[in-house]
Specification:
The chain is built from no helices and 14 strands. The protein is an all-beta fold. The chain has a domain at 21-55 and 68-158. The strands form two sheets. Strands 1, 2, 4, 6, 7, 8, 10, 11, 12 and 14 form a ten-stranded antiparallel sheet that branches.
């Protein structure tokens, strides 16, 4: 079973804008269908930063994605609109590097999971790392924006850098976040959750 622990820290905290406060750390045990953050997402902080490191999938050529909840994690199905673009380059320098919008990952008023990075390889040395920044999730007035930047070494041995952004089209407070692969399990990696003042 994966572990979720409060992150201990020694900080001389002055409340400066942009300060990161460590809150929770998910550590995969090698057999995690999902990584769920169902506590500490509240009005304490203006925004939340999730940093994921060395996420390794069970299945080759799978996507790392997320969704939000407004009912403490009972359902992850908040209506979302987003966009994603990426840059790509093969490690053997074959082909032509490119930058392109990936319209197959775009959502328009959908309750599907948002892809943060696609084509993650499952070789022993392959993984994905990046961050997700969620803005003002406790607002009951405005929609909730997010941005993400991530990198992976892909199933076909290339480097891909994905940029995703969008919003949850709800004025209800978001109080939980779930991460998962598009198929099978997360087999290694950590996800840290930080509050941002």
């Amino acid at each position: 079973m994966a572990t979720y622990q409060s992150i201990r820290y020694n900080v001389d905290y002055q409340g400066n804008a942009g300060s990161l406060m460590p809150l929770l750390l998910f550590t995969s045990d090698g057999s995690d269908a999902t990584a769920d953050f169902t506590s500490k997402i509240d009005s304490t902080y203006d925004s939340y930063l999730f940093i994921y490191n060395n996420i390794h999938p069970e299945t080759n050529n799978t996507n790392f994605s997320f969704q939000a909840s407004i009912d403490s994690g009972s359902n992850y199905n908040v209506t979302t609109t987003n966009t994603l673009f990426h840059s790509f380059h093969y490690e053997d320098d074959s082909g032509t590097p490119y930058v392109a919008q990936d319209t197959s990952r775009d959502l328009a008023q959908s309750t599907s999971f948002t892809v943060l990075i696609d084509s993650v390889g499952a070789d022993n040395d392959q993984n994905a790392s990046g961050y997700l920044h969620l803005f003002n999730p406790s607002s009951t007035t405005f929609v909730k924006h997010f941005i993400s930047n991530a990198v992976t070494n892909t199933q076909n041995d290339g480097a891909i850098n994905c940029f995703a952004a969008g919003y949850f089209n709800t004025t209800s407070a978001i109080d939980a976040i779930q991460f998962k692969m598009s198929s099978d399990e997360i087999q290694a990696g950590t996800i840290g959750m930080f509050g941002v003042h």
